[in-house]
């Protein structure tokens, strides 16, 4: 795979970013916590996948130096578990603001268990992330190769 863009963000405890995806230029992302700890989540949005609508979460920790790859066709988000965190990710395509998409971070159908990994943390969301729509099992999201097929 080929990475074309590197991004880095800094956040404080409880900040929850996501769940994001790109429609016009879907991105694969290789993510890691450069400093601190985050709970990182990917939701499979590939229609026809055996894991469509399922999520996988992992704690990324700068001390362990572990990484997580999120393929094209997945929504992505994370919550900061440490006092602060620096989060870095390499992307397989360039960010395109006209192709921003997202899912509600606490969608009941997807059922991400943020609380068991981040006990006592009240998620802090941007206004934009607080307005993402719910997951729709009947919607068309991505094909199996990670290309957007539309809603």
How would you sum up this structure, described in words?
This protein has 151 residues and is mostly beta strands. The chain contains one helix and nine strands, in the order βββββββββα. The chain has one helix at residues 114-117; strands at 5-12, 16-22, 29-35, 37-44, 55-61, 67-70, 74-80, 84-91, 100-102. Strands 5-4-7-2-9 form a five-stranded antiparallel sheet, with no helix packed on it. Strands 1-8-3-6 form a four-stranded antiparallel sheet, with no helix packed on it.
What attributes characterize this protein structure?
about 40% strand; 9 strands; 4-stranded antiparallel sheet; single chain; about 5% helix; about 150 residues; mainly beta
Strand content: 35-45%
Number of helices: 1
Question: Helix- and strand-based class?
Answer: mainly beta
User: Any idea what the radius of gyration is?
Assistant: 14 Å
- Which bin fits the share of residues in helices? under 10%
Order of helices and strands: EEEEEEEEEH
Q: Let me know the average pLDDT.
A: 95
């Amino acid at each position: 795979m080929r990475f074309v863009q590197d991004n880095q963000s800094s956040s404080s405890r409880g900040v929850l970013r996501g769940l994001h995806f790109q429609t016009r230029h879907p991105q694969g992302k290789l993510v890691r916590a450069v400093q601190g700890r985050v709970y990182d989540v990917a939701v499979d949005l590939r229609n026809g996948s055996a894991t469509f609508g399922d999520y996988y979460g992992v704690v990324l920790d700068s001390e362990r130096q572990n990484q997580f790859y999120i393929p094209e066709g997945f929504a992505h988000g994370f919550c900061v578990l440490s006092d602060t965190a620096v989060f870095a990710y390499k992307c397989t395509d360039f960010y395109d603001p006209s192709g921003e998409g997202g899912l509600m971070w606490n969608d009941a159908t997807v059922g991400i268990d943020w609380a068991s990994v981040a006990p006592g943390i009240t998620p802090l969301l941007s206004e934009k992330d607080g307005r993402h729509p719910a997951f729709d099992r009947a919607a068309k999201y991505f094909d199996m190769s990670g290309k957007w097929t539309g809603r």
